[in-house]
Amino acid sequence: MPAIIVALAIVFGSINPNFWSVTNLANVSRQVSILALLSLGQTFAILSGGIDLSVGSLLALVSVVCAQVMREFGLVEGIAAGVTAGGVAGLVSGLIIARARVPAFIATLGMLVAARGAALTLSGGLPIAGLPREFLVLGAGYIGPFPIPTVVAVVAFLLAHVILSRTRFGRYVYAMGSNEEAAVLSGINVAKYKMLVYVASGLFAGVAGVILTARVISGQPTLGEVQELYSIAAVVIGGGRISGGVGGIGTTLMGVLVLGILGNGLNLVQVSSYIQNIVIGAIIVGAVYVDLARERRQ
Amino acid sequence: MNGAPSFLELRGITKRFPGVLALNGVDFEVRAGEVHALLGENGAGKSTLIKTIAGVYRTDAGELFVDGRPARVRNPHDAQALGIGTIFQEFTLAPDMTVAENIFLGREPLRIRALSIVDRKEVVRRTRDVLASLDLQVDPEATVRDLGVAQQQMVEIAKALSLDARLIIMDEPTATLTAHEIDRLFESIRSLRARGVAVVYVSHRLDEVKTICDRATILRDGAFVATVTVESTSIDAMIRLMVGRDLKDKFPKVVIEPGEEVLRVEHLTRTGVLHDVSFSVRRGEIVGIAGLVGSKRTETVRAVFGADPVDGGRIYLHGKPVKIRTPADAIDHGIALVPEDRKRQGIFAVLSVRENIVLSALGQFSRGGFLDLRRERRKAQEFVASMRVATPDLEKRVLDLSGGNQQKVVIAKWLNTHAEVFLFDEPTRGIDVGGKIEVYRLMGELLSRGAAIVMISSELPEILGLSDRILVMRDGRICGEFTRAEATEEDILNCALRGAPAA
After folding, report:
1. Which residues of B touch A179 (CB under 8 A)?
2. Least crowded by CB within 10 Å, which of A128, B4, B389, B455?
């Protein structure tokens, strides 16, 4: 997979040298940071044997909550409220999945629809403008040469990596995804850790939603449509197994990079956005096929 | 029999997987009207060979003859066209369809051919005939999901019989059947034989091979060892051919003077399932639980382990009453469960040997909230060495190990939790002869370290060979108890079938 990323970069770079410009690379990383954050939450959900279809809609709900609270109470309160809204929505999905034992696909499908509805209700269907100017920095500012959204995404990746590879919670995520029944019989409190998985996913969506709000400098109830599907694509393109137990932050990073570089590169070489979708669709299926074919040969 | 023409002949069959030579120039001949056992330890190549015959795998070299003529089997459809039917160990039934729909799946009799409309009445009627020939009390219109495992297995067999195959391959067909169902299966195998149908019978149960088979071919490490006449070959001789060495003692029983009582279960009750189940087990003792499939033995140990709810009863550890509501409670109290279905309940197939071994005791491997991977590796290495788990390294997926080694990994997981009471549910199911002995040896080691063991087994020789005391269950009740000295197979069977020891 790293070879494919390098190959993509070389091809795009040779057709359009602008691909390698600092401005463009900063742009790619900034654009891809939202998908990256959503994909982190999705990684937890899919690894654990579930799925989170609600992350795209949560962007909208978080954005609306963040903007409304920010206008009313101030910058920090708005950011905190946005992230919290993501976490609470994740908790609700988690409780429905872990306690009521509704399949994750159904529970988060419900949340996908309901969160969008909540965002539209709270905002009356209109964008919420009039946010403080300092908030812009979060979306458009830099730390050194690095865009702030990129820095946030990188920190989140490191954090998620440590959680998955070095904590009991992380290990239990893999165990549940590999064999839920064996996990129960090994004494793991599966209900509790399942719930935590969706809280984590909601929190990552919360951070993503706040940053996206800063980039568009308004609360938008229509943000994030079909982003949940791209986040699933990012997880599986890199080699994460859709039924759980296999994958990790590394494979998700690969998937995010492939999608990000493809989108940007195809733009630079002036492939129409309609055709881009056809290419990306083919890549999603192709990458997983290659993976499965390799596994079958073994 | 000896004069019968050969139906299927394989010569020099070779099959490679990456890094493994699974079959190395194997010869195999099956005659019309014989029951031919295929024997060998796990990993000897039995499954690969039958999958080759069934068209699941393609061979790298070798020839195949049907009725003396060269034939090619490139896919399962080719095999069926040649009259070869296979009953795989993993069920291939569609669980949400009816018995009748399953049996005629893909070849439904049609009422209006042009519109492809299925003649349902005909499907049911013909299913009834097939089931009757097996003396099977199953409603053709029952949904497969609602049947017990044993009944599902019989439906699978009925399906193969209804195909009018000339050769039927059966892979461990009796693994989940009761004694009575096995008798019926053998009857239908005999009637197949009388009709000139050939049967390839794969099983670890050599007493069954002795009962039903005419000849046996033995494989070892992917190579052909011998084809023998069953009548003139003793079980011990077959084992010698399979493992390539003498097995002096099939059940290395460690006899220890039992110590104090560790676990006592009183009046365990779960409405409609368990009825007033009481028993106890002492340090250094193996209590075997015998009974038919469906006698609720598994439910009993699951209830003790907190995996299933109970409606009444008490559990004492070292004489003190304890509350066990979840497996985590049971583990805290030093109880371990090695479950019946290794793949579905025991192992984490895609996780590594190391991750499997440490999973139940991650608390011990955490420092400041983070896992100490170095300590995990050290501990896992210790267990792999002391339990002789055959794995190239600690990071190998458990999926890639043999059944016996997977079971060792499951047991190793519990050694980390300092368990004192081990509940073994069918500890050697699907494990080859050599692997079984390794598991028995491990159980002996646990006993010498002071553990108490409860062991469910459907193999009576295993129960008789290892247990200090034997409980027999029937319909969710304990209906008999025997000491090691007084127990015989006949008494246990009588008790399991009739609910009371024979007078």
Report:
1. 344-345, 347-349
2. B4
Amino acid at A109: L
Containing domain of residue B326, as a range? 261-498
| Residues of chain B neighbouring A162 (CB-CB closer than 8 A) | 370
Q: Are residues B318 and B183 in the same domain?
A: no
CA atoms within 13 A on the CB side of B77: 2
B420 and B492 assigned to the same domain: yes
- Structural domains in chain A, CATH included, are 2-297 (1.10.3470)
**Ramachandran quadrant class, B370 (left: phi over 0; alpha: psi -120 to 50; beta: rest):** beta
pLDDT in tens, A155-181: 999 999 999 999 999 999 999 999 999
Q: Which of A33-47, A173-187, B65-79, B144-158 has the lowest mean pLDDT?
A: B144-158
Residues of B in contact with A49 (CB under 8 A): none
Token duo for residue B20: 């493994």
- Domain final residue, candidates B182, B215, B243: B243
Prediction pTM value? 0.78
CATH number at residue B44: 3.40.50.300
Burial class from Cβ neighbours inside 10 Å (0-12, 13-18, 19+) for residue B401 reads buried
Q: Is residue B252 in some structural domain? A: no
Chain A residue with Cα closest to B342: A182
ipTM for the predicted complex comes to 0.87
The domain boundary, picked from B193, B211, B243, lies at: B243
